[in-house]
Amino acid sequence: MKKNLLMWDETLFRDPEVFEIDHVPEQFNHRDAQIRELAFQVRPGLRGARPLNTVCRGPPGTGKTTSVKKVFAEIEEATKKLAPVYINCQIDNTKFAVFSQIYRKVTGRSPPASGTSFKQVFDAIARALLREEQVLLVALDDANYLLYENEINHVLYPLLRSHEAYPGVRIGVIAIVSDMSVSLQNEVDARVASVFRPTEIYFPPYSEEEVRGILEERILQGLYLNVLRSDMLDLVVEQTMKSGDLRVGIDLLKRATLNAEKEARRSVEREDICKAYEVSRYLHLTYSLRALKAEERGVLGRIAEMSARDDREMNAGDVYRFVKEEVRVGYTKYYEILRKFDAMRLINLHYRQGKGQGKGRTRLISLRYDPRRVLEYLR
Asked: Is the pLDDT higher at 312 or at 95?
């Protein structure tokens, strides 16, 4: 019996890096058509012209980010004349934050100290591009977060119209969008839409067979032989398909293996997977909470507290009276935050017509997640 138990210094992982969400695998299958289309879109930039603008659109966990990072890695190996800059808009979702990242990549220096105007930052970027005779290619990952923050036009306008203020500067944009209710071309204002005109590349959800193949590759690279039996892989695939997000399956493999290690087992068992799924299934919630500002986290926390007390739809006005007891947020800002939560799929926000003549519509809120889990992750 003892020979089946792990020693304290043993591990089931051959390479734990394989199970990190931001890992870019060397072997990347099932997205050849999308990568070819992306390569076609950026090809003008390799010849010194402006890359074609692109929107990579598809549900979460369908390979959009990895495809863009694969293309960017090939560009960096092939030439210095096209400068690709990847920006995570969940983290950097203001105009200044986005252009600070571009400044860092183009100039090789940290952004200027606070007090520097946006024009000074953009002037420095443009001068560096002209001096090095470089074309800039900017990937805005989760660009829908710029939309939630009303920053999308403020970011796209200077990028797409830069040639008007700085003749000779050429910039292309790749926007990655996971919110299937968002159409960026329809959301941006007319002055941006007239120059944006992106080609849309669609990333469909992976089939069950594709999910199995991808997870098998990760297991082969990341775990030792016989750590995960085929029947246990069946369970992981089933849970992944239930969530609709490949990243849940990858995270599930990592957590289930850690659970098995904790119990000093040499293989992953059903109980390890079931326990891990209770955490991995909330991957979207975890990532969404990281993108919230302090006041937004405060509002969501109060909504979760109220929802935990009464698991019914809540009147938005009643929630506001509860929120403002602890969170300093005005009435208008509160409703802006609610609309953002609705767009981020954290809450359902809808309207009910009041009864009787002259009665207006009542806004109703319901939390999409277990309120206890929301409060736990907020802490």
From this structure: 95
CATH class of the domain at 292-378: mainly alpha
pLDDT tens-digit map of 211-230: 999 999 999 999 999 999 99
Cα–Cα distance list, 326 to 195, 299, 307, 332, 337 (Å):
45, 9, 16, 17, 16
Question: Do 35 and 67 touch, CB atoms closer than 8 A?
Answer: yes
DSSP H/E element including 76: helix 64-78
**Interatomic CA distance for residues 13 and 7, integer angstroms:** 14
User: Taking 60 as the threshold, does the pLDDT of residue 1 lie above it?
Assistant: no
Distances (CA, A) of 366 to 211, 300, 333, 337, 341: 32, 11, 19, 14, 11
Helices 246-262 + 230-243 axis angle, to 10: 140
The predicted structure's pLDDT at residue 138: 98
CATH class of 32-202: alpha beta
pLDDT, tens digit (0-9, with 9 covering 90-100), for 97-135: 999 999 999 999 988 776 778 899 999 999 999 999 999
Q: Where in the chain is the domain with CATH 1.10.8.60?
A: 2-19+206-285
Kindly state the tokens that stand for 231. 């029947």
CATH 3.40.50.300 residue ranges in the chain?
A: 32-202
pLDDT for the residue 7: 65
Q: Which CATH class is domain 2-19+206-285?
A: mainly alpha
